[in-house]
Amino acid sequence: MEGKEYKTIEELQNQKTWDGRDAGLIHLYSTRHIITSALSHKKEKPPVTEAFFSRVCVRLETHEKKEYHKYDSLQQAVLGIAKLSQTYQQEFYSSLYRLKYTFEEMERSLCMGLCDSPLLTPESFLTEKFRERREETSDCHEWLRKCTAYFKASNLWQKTIFDELSVGFMESVLHDTTNEEKEIKNLNRLFEGVASCLKKSSRNKLEKTYRPIDTESLVPTEKMIKETIGKNTEQAIENWQKAILSLTDRLMERGEEK
To answer: Which residue, 29, 22, 71, 74, is CA-closest to 49?
Structure first.
């Protein structure tokens, strides 16, 4: 199947007969429409009507229905991944804003040159008084890493599946990490500005709660993706959640080692 060109939705609509792959492609075009419309907050006309899709499916022979099932499983996986991505995105920005608030408060105290300040200072942050704040910072740091790893893992996992099934048009549903990566770079820069004003011993303590995040270390290798998918693509699709979350955990561990 790899390398086989896919038909456009217009070509599929103009056909008189359809096989299992054709039905699967129509199903995926509709799924792409659902996801991209939700992301753009625009209500656009679906690529096909439900009546048309039902007519296509009714005419499938038994062996063609088995072929269609593969694409139906992918459709469910893609929707599941998109839904889970929204949850991770919410957690990402919640953690990001809490970290920014903490580091910006420290930055303001440094700019004002206040040691005994009502504002949070890098020194006071390391005291027992702010132990819970440090724990929150550490948790938020891990969430940023985990969310980034999930986005990277799910994107490359899906892209590999799309390539294997020759449905490249589905790549538009992948999560765009441009903004998240930009925010992480800015956060790293903010942290470095605070940490650079500390003595080495204090900086080492501070880095136990937050270390600059290297997003490149959270990108899965081709080997990792292939190991996750294995030789049975259909089974991998049906077990998408376990596969991607397991890959996310592996990336988290690999990132810690670097």
So the answer is: 29
